[in-house]
Amino acid sequence: MVISLEEGWNVMQDGINNILEGLPEPQFTSDGYMILYTTIYTMCTQRPPHEYSEQLYEKYKETFEEYIKSTVLPSLRENKDELLLRELLIRWSNHKIMTKLLSRIFCYLDRFHIPRKWGLPSLEETGFLSFYHLVYDEVKKQVMDAILAMIDWRQAGEPIDQTLVNNALAFYSEIGESTRRNDPKHFAETMIKEKSTFYYDEGSNWIASSIFMDNTPEVMKMHYSPTGSSRKINLISSDGDMFEVDYDVALMSKTIEDAIETDPTGDVNCISLSLVSSKILAMVIEYCKKHKNAQMSDVDLMDWDVEFVNVHYTTLFDLVLSSNYMNINSLYNLVGGKIGDMIKGKTAGEIAQLFDIKDVCTQEEQNQ
C-alpha cells in the first residue's frame, strides 16, 4: 500500500506531538517508535513519485524550527538574569532529548538520503543547528551578561549557584561541539576577558573545567543490561507469528536496539516487525544467532554464509528488504553481494530473464 505524503505526515505529527508534550520525559513506547520508524522507512522506499526522502528531511528541520519559535523562544524571552540561565539549560536539555529521539525515528534519512546529498548535515547536527541559529544567536549576549553578573556577586561576597554558572558556561562549549563551530566558546572567553583579568582567569578556568551536567532523563539512556541468554524478547512478524530470541541476538538489528532504547520503561518484551514475514524473520534470526554466537572458524562461517544465501531470488529480495528495514548491515551486505554476483556481466535482457521481469525494457535494450 502506498502512503501519501499527507497521510504519512499526519501519522508522524501525532507521534511527534506526543513526544514534545511529554518533554523532558516523554512517555514513548517501543510500539510507538516502530510505528513512526516504519512510516518513515516506507515513505523513503516507495517507488517514485511516492518516494518522499527529500520532503521528509525538510519536514524534520521544520519540526525543530516550529517548536523553537512557538515554545522555546517565548519561554526564554520572558526571563532574565538567573532565571534566564535556568530556563536556557532546561530548554537545551529538552532539545537534546528531542534531537536524539527524532534522529532515531528518521534515521533512514541518515543512512541513505543524506549521504547522497553532498554537504547536508546529519540529522543530529541539523537538530542542534536549529537551536544554534534560532536560540543561541538571539540570547548569547543576554546569557553572558547574566553569567558575568553572577561572577560580580561572587566577587562581592554574595553566595551564588556555582553549578548553574558552570553549566551555563559549559553550554557555550557544548553547543559549539554539537554544531562543529568554534565561535560559541570563543565568544564566551572573549566576553569574560573584556571584563577584567580576574574574570578571564576565573571564567576561563570554569569553561575549561566545567562538565555540563547530563540532565538527560534515564529514559534516553541505555537501560538494558542483560547479556547472553539471561533475557528474552519476542519478535512478531507481519503474519502475527511470535519468535522468542535472546536479547543479544535481537540487538544485532539496530532498528530493534533503537526501539528498546527509546522505551521509558526499559522493559520491552515484544517488538512488532510489520514489514517482515514469518518465513524471512525465521531466516534473519537464524543468521543473527549464527553470527552472534559463532562456534566455528571464520572460514567455516564464510562457507555457512555462502550456503545461507543459496536460495531462490525472491527469497534474496525479501532478505535484502528485511535486513534493510531491520538495519542489519552485515546481512544486508551479504545478500546484496550475492545479488550483485548473480547479475555481474549480464545484459539487461538476461537480468530480466533471470529474475522473471517482464515488459521493462525494449528488445534493443535487452541486447545491450
TrEMBL record:
Pathway: Protein modification; protein ubiquitination. GO terms for molecular function: ubiquitin protein ligase binding. One of its GO terms (cellular component) is cullin-RING ubiquitin ligase complex. SMART domains: Skp1. One of its GO terms (biological process) is ubiquitin-dependent protein catabolic process. It comes from the Eukaryota. Residues 330-366 form the SKP1 component dimerisation domain. Residues 9-210 form the Cullin N-terminal domain. Pfam families: Cullin (PF00888), Skp1 (PF01466), Skp1_POZ (PF03931). Residues 232-293 form the SKP1 component POZ domain. SUPFAM superfamilies: Cullin repeat-like, POZ domain, Skp1 dimerisation domain-like. Belongs to the SKP1 family. This is Cullin-like protein. It comes from Medicago truncatula.
